[in-house]
Please model this.
Amino acid sequence: MENKNVAIYLTGGIACYKAVNVVREFVKAKANVKVAMTASAQKMITPLTLAALSQNPVYTDFEMPGQTDFVPHISLADWSDLAVVVPASANIIAKMANGLADDFVSTALLATAAPKFVIPAMNDKMLSNPATSRNIAVLKDDGVKIMEPAYGFLAEGYDGKGRMPQPEEIFSWISQQMAVKQDLKGLKVVVSAAGTIEKIDPVRYLTNFSSGKMGYALAEVAKRRGAEVVLVSGPSNLQVPVGIKYHAIKNTTQMQNIMQAEFVDADIAIMAAAVSDYRVKEPATEKIKKDTPTLTLELVKNPDILKKLGQQKKSQFLVGFAAETQDVLANGGKKLIAKNLDMLVANDVARTDIGFGTKDNEVTLLTPKRQPKPLPKASKRQIAEWIFDEIIALRQERGEKLSNAMPK
Ligand code: CTP
Model:
């Protein structure tokens, strides 16, 4: 934690008195610490205590006496390498989950791009309330790390789940999470995502239900684990992960051209895009009028990008996805062989709780030499982590440590 800029946000809860020691843990570890407090937190302990411990003024509101910084919430948000919310009340969790910004703490938290660590501490019934559970699930899905509250004696005078863990435990949990593995460092990872679209006329097109979530999660995880990442994406509403090379494409031909060019010096390529298998043979140059009772579109087959990459492959590790509605493993296995892949992620798109547009997925990893590996249902981000764990294990098995992207 040495020299890391740590913003610690205290919100309303009796556990504020223990949060003082969380601040101390970071100061002891030689981090630069700045504290912000909600109005409720200031009723529990004084800002002066935390200013003395952190050796920095404490943010208590947008305007403070003697202040020279006119946008302090943005300054704090941009300064932070990590943001810790401790204790996190049900209220701040609800605000964070919904993007509300109605005081200094919630506004700075909304503005920061730093990794966020939330340590809930509240009454057991507030914790188990479906609304709080829902909000925690939303935050987890957004990539916020949430520490599991402890079971024990609550301020209410009885035992229950909702107690804040000990400050040393909180510090070591955050330290572990910050030590991100850099096992993709030096490797070039190319990912395709979202659906391609094929024009019918100037105002209409053919496409599919892909949201791009799985591909974007793969790109984000690869970046975090140290890779040089290229994301080739069809239209999507998702935020482009920072620090990657991004190609926005529309149709299959554009995706194919970029994928083939980026594949040459790639180490790992993953086709997570839902590619339109057909395109309109001759898209109309003018808007098609509804003056006929039926309309026939003539479609021609698009190239299979993944198959082409499989033919072009040298030492690249090539991964495909299989969207199946029946016989998932058998059909996936056929695609693995036919497209000369190193791994195929088989996806049952007939299920409505996973797959297209949903935040979760449940997939099976198929590889040429091993038994199929079913993964449990999890967020697409978690699935992305497991996919890279497996790719790294298989590359190591093949004795591949060197990168195609790096000078040999
Ligand atoms: N894919 C591709 N180019 C296409 C179609 C698919 O690169 N024209 C890729 C997808 O990105 C995915 C894999 O091939 O990684 C499998 O896609 P899927 O739609 O499951 O299968 P298809 O090969 O299109 O076969 P089918 O639609 O007949 O099941």
